[in-house]
Structure formats: C-alpha cells, structure tokens
Amino acid sequence: MTSLFTLEKEADAERLVTVLGESNNDTIRQRAAEILGDLDVPDDEVVDSLTTAAQDDPNAAVRAAAIDALDQREAVEQLIAAIVGEEISGSRAEWARAEELTDALTSDQPELRMAAANVLGRIGSRSATEDLIRQLSDPDPRVRSRIARALGRLEDKRAVSHLAERRTDEEVEVRRETAEALGRMQGDEALSALLGMLNDPAEAVRRIAAGSLGTFGSERPLDALIELLGDKSDAVRKAAVFSLIELLSNVPPEKSHELRETMVEKLSTSEHRVVVTSLVEIIEEGSQAHQRRNATWLLGRVTGTQNRWEAIETLVGVLDADDGMTAQFAVTSLAEIGGKSVETALLEVLSDSEATTDAQAMAAFGLGKVGGERSRERLDDLVDTTDDEEVRKRAFSALSKLGGRA
Fold first, then answer.
1. Which of 157, 204, 246, 264 has the fewest CB atoms within 10 Å, i.e. the most exposed one?
2. Sign of CA dihedral 199, 202, 208, 210
3. What pLDDT, on the 0 to 100 scale, is given for residue 170?
4. Burial of 267 (0-12, 13-18, 19+ CB in 10 A)
5. Domain range list for the chain
C-alpha cells in the first residue's frame, strides 16, 4: 500500500478518498481526512467524501477530522445542509448566515454542533459570540474545542473570562484551543489567563501559551518566559525564546530600553543552551525582518563560553544581510562577544575570495571595534589593495580607531 506521505506529496486526491472510505484503520482514515482538507484541488468528490465521513464514519475522531477538513475547504455548509436537509446560503449577509447557524449549536447531533461552530468562526460575525459562549460547556469535548476555536477567530473580548474558565478542562484538545484563542484576544485578562496555563501538564498547551506571550506588548511575561527555558520540552523552550524576541518588538517604545537591559541581564546568567540555538535558528531561518534583527541583537549579548563559536559563525553569516539593520546588529553583537575568536573570524572574511563586498565592508568595520595589531596591519594593506570603495572607506575608518596607518 502506498504511504499517506506519498499520497500527500503527490496530491493524489482520488486515492486519498478511497483510503478515507475503505481503510479499516481509524488513525489512517483520520490522517487521510486531514490531508484532504489541506490539498489544493478543486474536486467535488473530495467534499462529498468528507461530508460522508463526517456523518457516517464509526470513529468520532475521524468524523471530527472530516469536519475540520471541510472547514479548511470552506465547505462545511454542505455538511450542515446534508444533516438538516436544508441548504445554508453562502450569498446572504454574514449576520444573517450567523443567525441561521446559531440554532445548530444546540442540535442533538454533536457533528452538527461542531460544524456550526467552525462556520461561525470562519464567518467572523460577532453577533454569534453570546451563542458560542453559552456552548463552551458542551458535554462533547470535540464541540467545546471548536467553540473555543471559533471564539478565538472572532477575537471578541467578551469571551475572555469564559475562555479562562476552560483552562482546566479535562480534555487536552479543549485546553489547547483555549490557549490559541486567548493568544488572539490580547489585553490584560487574556494575558493573565495564558500565564496561568504555563504549568499545564500537556506540552502542546504549554507550547502554545508560551508562543503567544510575546504578542501582548507587555513586559509582564518576561520572568515566566525565562523560567520556561528550563521546561523539559524542547518545543516549549523554543517557543519561550521566540516570545522573548517578539517582546522586544511589541513593547511600547518608552519601555523598550529597560526591557532589553533586563532581558540581557537575566539571560546572561542562564546556562540554557536553547537560548543560543533558538536565536541561531531564528537568524538563519526566520522570515520576518524584525525577528531576525532582534535575534541578532540579542545573540551577542547572551552568548556564553559554551556556545561561543556557534554564535560567532552565525553572526558573521549575516554581515551582508539584505536588511541593513540586521547587518549592523551583527557587528555590534560580535563586538559584544569580543576576543581573539571574533577578530580571527572577521579577518577570515577579509581573506575569503567568495565573501561579498558588503560582508567585507562590515567585517572591516567590526575590526575597528575588536581588532589588535594584526587587524591594524591587515586593514592597512586592505586600504591599498581593495577595489571596492565602501570596503576601503570602512577599512580606513577602522584603521583610524586602531591607531592609524603605520
């Protein structure tokens, strides 16, 4: 049998539909439904098969996965229509569609309640908030989790206190969706609720709570995030570092300097290797300029002796970053680390025939901050031999800081 991974890679909707309808393995059918929800294939047969699975599959987890897959494909209304025997018009005004769907939240069929919650969250009409809140105590945990998800999508702060009551729900999936929803709400009440979820026994809940704390624009989570650097889960530790970086971007400007100083002071006394490795990962793989910039700034200020070379190599690697601020921060971070190792790394950039002129210009600039006699001699030679005006300018400036030409 061809693996689900292969079917997903090949976007083989036809065979995935067959697996969903015919496999005897609940886990395989569930995964097939999840993949079908993600496939970018305009195929009515996919929607029909998911609609059938959502109603008729003998396994509750498969039915739930099929409902979520229909939501991914924005086709849950077809399931609702199949269950109630009446079409839900997608052309009506959002508030009218929401009003039409709220009755389904109290249906005797949990699959219909789940489907209605998904659609209400996607429609985004806050007229449904009160009805969704009332169903947060639904007896079916699959419904409760999707109610929480829908409320998170609506981002209506009226729901915060009610979501906070689900922090201790007996089902992990409900707590996970609650953490996701609270992370989207913002505000002090939501922040307090999330801070209260950092000790959750489930890794997924702690990870989501930790990963959301950096978006609140408040310095309150700082100590809690630093404490999470000792969490037994690598995923949670990385999420904490990510949120620390986000804090640097999201706190009010008037608090930024104090937060940076406090963060550096607290992290500098930490021996958690995850700090450096996570910062390196953000710098090398991050897609957002502000994340890479702040990670670059922080890396040089929290690097200890154990992670020194890893940090130096990473910072040298972004000396020619497209974002000029990241390149500038790389130089200042290298200067913060300092020492012969940094000087050697920068000198190697000047001697590397494959290094860009941007990298060499910044390396010359950095040598003016950390260099000694051997740097002075190399820069003196560079001023006379380089063909690049920016490199010459940077080398001459650095040379003057080291005592000038011989």
1. 157
2. positive
3. 97
4. buried
5. 198-337, 342-406
H helices of 186-323, where?
188-195, 203-212, 222-228, 234-250, 253-268, 273-285, 289-302, 308-317
8 Å CB contact between 111 and 67: yes
On the question of pLDDT at 366 being above 90, the answer is yes
Q: What tokens were used for 351? A: 């001697």
Amino acid at 279: L
By the 10 Å C-beta count (0-12 exposed, 13-18 middle, 19+ buried), 313 is classed as exposed
Would you list the DSSP string of 91-106? TS-HHHHHHHHHGGGG
CATH of the structural domain 342-406, one choice from 3.30.70, 1.25.10, 1.10.1740, 3.30.300: 1.25.10
CATH number assigned to the domain with residue range 198-337, chosen from the 4 options 1.25.10, 1.10.357, 1.10.3470, 3.30.70? 1.25.10
Look-up: residue for tokens 């209260």?
196
Band (pLDDT 50/70/90 cuts) for residue 286 is confident
Q: Which residues make Cβ contacts (< 8 Å) with residue 42, sequence separation at least 6?
A: none
As a whole number of angstroms, the distance between CA 343 and CA 146 comes to 55
Q: Tokens for 8?
A: 């997903």
Q: For 127, which DSSP code? A: G
3-state secondary structure 164-176: HCCCCCCCHHHHH
Please tell me the predicted confidence (pLDDT) of residue 274: 82
**Segment (H or E) for 19:** helix 13-22
Report the candidate in 123, 131, 140 with the shortest Cα–Cα distance to residue 162.
Answer: 131
Apex 44 CA angle, 42 and 45, nearest 5: 115
